[in-house]
Design a protein that fits this description.
Layout (H helix, E strand, L loop, with lengths): L1 E5 L2 E6 L8 E4 L18 E4 H6 L6 E5 L15 E5 L9 E6 L2 E9 L4 E4 L8 E3 L5 E11 L7
Antiparallel strand pairs: 1-2, 2-5, 3-4, 5-6, 6-11, 7-8, 7-11, 8-9, 9-10
Length: about 150
């Protein structure tokens, strides 16, 4: 694990071990969230999480742990792990890891003619307007989120 500190903001990079590919049982028919379905409706398939999360170009992807609640409306919570692709060209509506001056932030991009807005997905936070005068860089685009659902002790 590698940590980068810029002022008071921490970006925690997680080490990826792509030498190990684990295939797990996968039920392609879907798991009903409503009424139960007979288990024998499912085919016996496997899935590789590393291929699903990192795709065909893992060298352009990094993972980081999220701190804060500004993106909860997008389903990204404090302590989630995001997979970020540095190769993707940022587009309007993408969720991006951005650096503004010496601070990191995770926000949705809203691209307008004269500026870019960094939009939070939580009403407790205000949008951030980026103009030509700002020191601003997109580090990458979020492609996946890993979330722990069991209640932590």
């Amino acid at each position: 694990m590698k940590e980068i500190f810029l002022n008071t903001t921490k970006l925690e990079f997680l080490n990826l071990d792509l030498n190990f590919v684990a295939e797990m049982p996968y039920f392609d028919g879907g798991i009903p969230a409503g009424f139960p379905s007979p288990a024998n409706d499912f085919q016996d398939l496997t899935i590789s999480f590393d291929k699903e999360v990192f795709g065909s170009s893992p060298s352009t992807i990094f993972c980081a742990r999220v701190t804060g609640s500004s993106m909860e409306g997008a389903g990204i919570s404090d302590n989630d792990i995001i997979a970020v692709d540095r190769l993707l060209v940022p587009q309007d509506g993408d969720i991006a890891v951005c650096q503004i001056y010496d601070e990191f932030t995770l926000k949705r991009l809203k691209v307008e003619k004269d500026c870019v807005w960094l939009m939070p997905e939580n009403d407790s936070f205000k949008p951030i307007q980026i103009t030509d005068n700002e020191s601003f860089q997109v580090w990458g685009i979020v492609i996946n989120t890993l979330k722990y659902h069991r209640k932590r002790k």
